């Protein structure tokens, strides 16, 4: 019989899958976009601090870090609010 995941484990698993998907899409865009557009892509700024070249690896890192931070902050906020709500009850 398969084990069931509790809610927090399911959310963290989905978070990891989404971050991995963002990295994969970034790598695909970095690999295919120059051929499809017929021109080179311009470098992107990660958090306005680090300039990343639009290579498959660079765009994979950019996508993973950007989505990971945005969703990570939201996930931490939800976890904080849920603990606060549980303590109040």
How is this structure best summarized?
The chain has 89 residues and is mostly helical. The protein has 2 helices and 2 strands.
Secondary structure topology:
Layout: H1 7-37, E1 44-46, E2 50-52, H2 56-88
Antiparallel strand pairs: 1-2
Helix pairs in contact: 1-2
Q: Any idea what the shape is?
A: elongated
Biggest sheet strand line-up: 1-2
The low-pLDDT segments are none
N to C succession of SSEs: HEEH
Over all CA atoms, what is the radius of gyration?
Answer: 18 Å
- Individual helix count: 2
According to DSSP, the number of beta strands is 2
Q: In the residues, how many domains can be counted?
A: 1
- Helicity range of the residues? over 70%
Mean pLDDT across all residues, rounded? Answer: 84
Structural class of the helix and strand makeup? mainly alpha
Ends apart, CA distance between termini: 34 Å
% residues in beta strands: 5-15%
User: Biggest sheet, in brief?
Assistant: 2 strands, antiparallel
Tags for this model:
mainly alpha; 89 residues
Give your account of this protein's structure.
- The chain is mainly alpha-helical and 89 residues long.
- It has one domain.
- 72% of the residues lie in helices and 7% in strands.
- The chain is built from 2 helices and 2 strands, in the order H-E-E-H.
- The chain has helices at 7-37, 56-88, and strands spanning 44-46, 50-52.
- The protein has a two-stranded antiparallel ribbon with strand order 1-2.
- A hairpin with a 3-residue loop joins strand 1 and strand 2.
- Helix 1 packs antiparallel against helix 2 (56-88).
- It is elongated and about 50 Å long.
């Amino acid at each position: 019989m398969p084990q069931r995941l509790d809610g927090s484990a399911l959310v963290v698993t989905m978070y990891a899958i989404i971050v991995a998907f963002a990295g994969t899409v970034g790598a695909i865009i970095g690999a295919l976009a120059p051929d499809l557009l017929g021109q080179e892509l311009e470098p992107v700024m990660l958090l306005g601090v680090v300039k990343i070249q639009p290579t498959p690896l660079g765009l994979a890192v950019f996508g993973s870090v950007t989505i990971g931070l945005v969703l990570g902050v939201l996930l931490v906020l939800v976890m904080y609010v849920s603990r606060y709500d549980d303590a109040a009850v």
